[in-house]
Amino acid sequence: MSERSEIEWTDATWNPVRGCTKISPGCAHCYAETFAERFRGVPGHPYEQGFDLRLVPEKLLAPLSWRRPRMIFVNSMSDLFHQDVPDEYIVSVARTMAQARWHTFQVLTKRSERMSELLRSELEFAATQPHIWWGVSVENRKHGVPRIAHLQQAPAVMRFLSIEPLLEDVGKLDLRSIDWVIVGGESGPGARPMQPAWVRSLRAQCRQGRIPFFFKQWGGRRKALAGRQLDGRTYDEMPRRRLQPTESTIAAP
Ligand code: SF4
After folding, report:
1. Which of 4, 135, 172, 211 could form a disulfide with 108 if both were Cys (CB 3.0 to 4.6 A apart)?
2. Ligand 1 within 6 A of 207 CB?
3. Is 71 touching ligand 1 by the criterion CB < 6 Å?
């Protein structure tokens, strides 16, 4: 858990689960794994067990003690819908989010089928809360694009896509009922390159659908050098909560 985050599209991170296992090509250079494994075996460190998945129940209520409203990325170091996280534990995480209404929570997963099922059952109470945003990762056509339909099938009030690391041209997407799109390239050693044309296509589709578009980074081995400008400007568009549709932040094309 951290009250501050360096991730461009959030303010803070909250990790009531730590660790994960890889599920698709977007996981190949998982930053969370690299970070966690650095501390494997360090006594008393939160990542003493490296990237092995474990629940952290003592962190379940943490956001309730943060009085200042924040955008909170839930499980930046894990995947809440991993098969080893029990349904009851996920419900406990959602209860905290539902209670802490002054924050905005961003839940992002690659386990989209499980998220979709739970949002239609045990998590229905949280799906309808506009301060809880539900998102899926989309890195390619084969593994990433099908997750969009799972998200659309869920009765979520706020839905977003994290198209990162963008590994290929994902083509024309069905963006109906999607409230926000984040796009970014992979960074760090061995980063797989992203073509500008792939990003421009997504920007155009967002423009057409009047969907806020956030361009996070080009990535590469040294991401600071590549920067985050696209055709001479940055794109930091964010959705407003659905209850405030007149306050749209969509920038002029
Ligand atoms: S799902 Fe996310 S946290 Fe889990 S291994 Fe893949 S990239 Fe890492």
Report:
1. 135
2. no
3. no
Query: Ligand 1, closest atom to CA 77?
Result: 3
**Tokens of residue 132, six digits:** 């809880």
CA of 82 relative to ligand 1 center, distance in Å: 9
32 lines ligand 1 (CB under 6 A): yes
Q: pTM, whole model, 2 decimals?
A: 0.92
List the chain pLDDT tens, one digit each, 253 residues. 465 677 888 899 999 999 999 999 999 999 999 999 999 999 999 999 999 999 999 999 999 999 999 999 999 999 999 999 999 999 999 999 999 999 999 999 999 999 999 999 999 999 999 999 999 999 999 999 999 999 999 999 999 999 999 999 999 999 999 999 999 999 998 999 999 999 999 999 999 999 999 999 999 988 888 899 999 999 999 997 644 333 333 333 3
Q: Please give the Cα distance from 50 to 41 (Å, whole number).
A: 7
Q: Which distant-in-sequence residues (6+ apart) come within 8 Å of 30 by Cβ?
A: 20, 22
Cα–Cα distance measured from residue 53 to residue 248, given in angstroms and rounded to the nearest whole number: 38
Taking CA atoms only, the protein residue closest to ligand 1 atom 3 is: 78
Torsion sign over Cα 2, 47, 56, 88: positive
User: What is the rounded distance in angstroms from the CA atom of residue 214 to the CA atom of residue 164?
Assistant: 11
Q: Which of 15, 17, 20 to probe ligand 1 with, by most ligand atoms within 8 A of CB?
A: 20
- Our answer on whether the CB atom of 226 is closer than 6 Å to any ligand 1 atom is no
Alpha-carbon torsion (23, 29, 35, 36), positive or negative: positive
In short, whether 11's Cβ falls inside 6 Å of ligand 1 is no
